[in-house]
Amino acid sequence: MDNKDIIEKYLNNISISQKYDENYKTFLNLVSFLETIDDIIENDIIILENEKVNSLIQSIVEYNMDKIKNDKINEICENDIGIKLINSYCTLNNVYGDIMKLSIDSDNDILDTYLKSIKNFPVLTREEERYLFNKLHEGDENARTVLINCNLKLVVNIAKQYNNTGVDMMDLIQDGNNRLIYIIDRFDINRNVKFSTYVYTCITRYLNYTIPNSCRKIRIPHHIYHDVQKYIAVRIKLENELNGEVTIDDIAKKLNWSKRKVEEIDKLQYDACSLNAIIMQNDHNNDMELEEFIPADIDDLDVIYDKNELKDNLTKLILNSGLNEIEIFIIMRRLNGLKFQSIAKILGISYQRVEQIEKRAINKIIKNKQTDNFAIYMGDEKAALERLNQKRKNLKRKKRN
Fold first, then answer.
1. Most exposed among 2, 86, 202, 266, judged by the fewest C-beta atoms under 10 Å?
2. DSSP readout, 71-93?
3. Positive or negative, the Cα torsion across 360, 361, 367, 372?
4. Does domain 101-214 fall into CATH 1.20.120.1810?
């Protein structure tokens, strides 16, 4: 008996109860069973199309709707397979709601325009899909257009699951749309599978394979990339729960990894950065690249290249600038490369509010006289001090007005 038969036999023996506690226990048992299957990815369509599995997950989702709407699925189940099952059900059944909510958290006008252009396309039933595929096989190209258009929102919902991978959302959507067009000609209507389920599994597999190669300048193996993503997610969660510094031991215990593995993954979480990366604008609104902040000829090289000393001094500056706890939290996370959207999720506020708090914190830091000690890192100490003094004068003028 192969894995497909084993899975089908187990799924058909699932019993659905009227009580949530019993269904939740059945769900956890299902997750534990699926962990024992080696090629679970190759059999995901069987699982997603099973009526008993859908009824089981539906009861879990309806009971925990508040957690799902607030992006707290990991409070329902911390197991990756369990999270993926719930995510899959919510995506295929449009539980996450209007795709236009995605534009609220984005300042991308192109994305906003695109979402508006597809929001009114209907979701097809299995019968409608079968009818359109029959028309397509008869040579009706309009049927192809309808099939593509009516699955564009599904592609967006799939892409949303990869929003924090470092790949631009429009690039994710474009990759998903290209894959959608590709698989239409390869779908067998005689299979007892809904086309939208087939689209979901194919695009998810495709993105899982391509994202590790596209979001990093230095490529790492796929399984290592996914370990890095697990590490980052757990670290952020623990930082939020413990309200303090998280140790390697804390993360190792949570992930059930060895301390050595956590240390190795920790080194891989940061990608290479180009010296030509734009990091800010100067007073004349000209882009400034990272290499402009690297001094070319400094006498005291020990001070410049001692990263630990620089980090310690910078931390002291932040802590001595009169910042409140939220401002310190946001500034430190921003220095570690966390995006506004990610910080907003942790704090439960909008990303615009995070940006406002960061600007307020930066203004406080600028007013701190100790900021002058960091002028040497700008390459031109005199020019840097002049800029800092000018900013202080501007702040004073604003207060008077």
1. 2
2. T-GGGT--SHHHHHHHHHHHHHT
3. negative
4. yes
CA distance 299 to 113: 53
The structure tokens 């089981």 sit at 56
- The model carries a pTM of 0.56
First-to-final CA distance of the chain: 80
**280 phi and psi angles, rounded to 5 deg:** -170, 175
| Strand 278-281 versus strand 287-289 pairing type | antiparallel
pLDDT exceeds 80 at position 382: no
Other C-beta atoms lying within 10 Å of the C-beta of residue 23: 21
Residue 287: which H helix or E strand, with range? strand 287-289
Residue type, 16: I
At residue 372's C-alpha, the angle toward residues 369 and 376, to 5°, is 170
CB distance 47 to 34 below 8 Å: yes
Lowest mean pLDDT among 69-83, 149-163, 271-285: 271-285
Residues 6+ apart with CB under 8 A from 353: 344
Per-position DSSP letters for 352-381, written without gaps between them: HHHHHHHHHHHHHHHHSGGGGGGGGGGS-H
Average pLDDT over residues 273-290: 60
Q: What is the mean pLDDT of the chain?
A: 77
Taking residues 83-107, what's their average pLDDT?
68
Q: Which two tokens stand for residue 306?
A: 């001692």
pLDDT at 261 > cutoff 70: yes
pLDDT-based confidence at 171, cuts 50/70/90?
confident
pLDDT of residue 337: 74
Domain range summary for the chain, segments of one domain joined by +: 3-92, 101-214, 222-268, 293-400
Distance CA 62, CA 144 (A): 34
Is the C-alpha dihedral spanning 227, 231, 232, 233 positive or negative?
Answer: positive
Residue 105 buriedness (CB in 10 A; 0-12 / 13-18 / 19+): middle
